[in-house]
Specification:
The chain is mainly alpha-helical. It has one domain (about 1-69). Helix content is about 90%, strand content about 0%. The protein contains 2 helices and no strands. It has helices at about 1-25, 30-69. α1 (about 1-25) packs antiparallel against α2. This is Putative membrane protein. It comes from Massilia aurea. Keywords: Membrane, Transmembrane, Transmembrane helix.
Length: about 70
C-alpha cells in the first residue's frame, strides 16, 4: 500500500508539473497531447483507488456488524 501511495503522489506531482508547463505554452503539440493523456490516466487511477478503498471499508463494516449479531 505504501508503494501505491508513493507512486500516486509522484504521479500527481509530475502531472501538476507538466500541466503547468503546458499552460505556459512551453510544450509542443505532441507533448500537450501526452500531458492531457497523463492527466486522464491519473484521474482514472485515483478514482479506481478510491472505489477500491470504499468497497474495502464497506466490506469491513459489513463483517464487523455481522460479528456483533
Amino acid at each position: 500500500m505504501k508503494v501505491v501511495l508513493i507512486c500516486a503522489t509522484l504521479f500527481i506531482f509530475f502531472s501538476m508539473l507538466m500541466n503547468s508547463a503546458r499552460k505556459r505554452g512551453k510544450l509542443g503539440d505532441n507533448a500537450n497531447r501526452a500531458v492531457t493523456g497523463l492527466a486522464t490516466s491519473m484521474r482514472i487511477f485515483v478514482y479506481g483507488l478510491l472505489a477500491c478503498v470504499v468497497i474495502l471499508c464497506c466490506a469491513m463494516a459489513w463483517h464487523m456488524l455481522g460479528q456483533q449479531a
